[in-house]
Amino acid sequence: MQFCSNLVEPGVTAQLSPNLDGRSLARTGNVLKSRRLPERLGELPGALYVHGGVAPTTISVLVFRPTGVEHREYVQLRDLEQLVAEGCPIWVRIKGLANQELMHQVFACLEVPEPLHQPLIDTPQRTRVDALGHAVLVVMHRLSGTSGNRLVSEQVGLVLLGRVLLSVEEVPRPVAFPELTRWLDQLQPPPCAGDIDDILFFLIDEVLDEVLPLLEQLSEGLDDLEEAAIRRPSPRVLRQAYEMRSTLRQVRGMIWPLRSQLIVLIRQSYRVLDKGAIKGFREVSSHVDVIFETAELLRHQCDGVTTSYMASISNRMNQVMKMLTIVSSIFVPLTFIAGVYGMNFNPDKSPWNMPELNAYFGYPLCIAFMLIVAAIQVGMLWRRGWFQDWTGTR
Known about the structure:
394 residues; alpha+beta; 8-stranded mixed sheet; two-stranded antiparallel ribbon; 49% helix; rod-shaped
């Protein structure tokens, strides 16, 4: 599988073009990774090209009022400033990263600390959990698979700022976090200012939930590969096993930082998190442990597929060598007999005479004797089980 980032639509792979800050997607080991480009002659690299262009930036807001949840679509900056001035708890959702100037203005309006701007805008970022003053930053990746055996990554940034929750999605979707949005609409009474930190860990949990179907898909693929490694071993099976192992390594790399950084967040118990949120983050930490251990088990299953493939290939090679040994064992005595009677010695001048050379039926008798020897050898090898096919399907 291949790892793709900065996509406009799920399943659309990014092309290999550099980014403004000197990053580029370089193909190594059938995986796309972000790397720093060395200094080179010529102009600075252009913007990262994505099929269809970078997704346009749109802003929507969920306002949590005592009467219910109010949805605001395509919010302008002045409208956002009015909502912030009202003091109601809000969830600001930014989709698309094309208009970075607008995003910086939104960050300034929400008083997002300056060091947290770039992790929300630049992609791809390593999964991280940071806290700065009254703000908590979480950068994660939505992971999904496509029919072409590709791993698709969509970056999601989350910032908790007291009464304000900010989410930045790299790839726009018709509804941001649809399951959580429907649950909030039906929640009675509606969320208040003290529930904003709870929504944060619900968001993290929803992103993590999308990893489990991917792992289940990989598990089913590994089961098929293991069966194919025993029944129909071929280099393609081994190549697919290595690709799945590489994909699992990428998933593990996305999950691993959360495992340690969530523990630090829980221990420090930042002021913006109440006891309920701390309990929720402990549940998220357990969820991360389950996903991490599942990925590790699947990596071991990849090793099992490789071992099955090597064992099957070894058995088939032994079967071939066994058949060659059988053929050689049968023809060695026949070759010896033919060599003995093929010696050109004159029987009249030699004290040692071969009476079969002058026999009238010497040739057919020799052939019959050779066939009898071959039949005896075949019978002995058959009784010993040498003709059994050890590579037959189960």
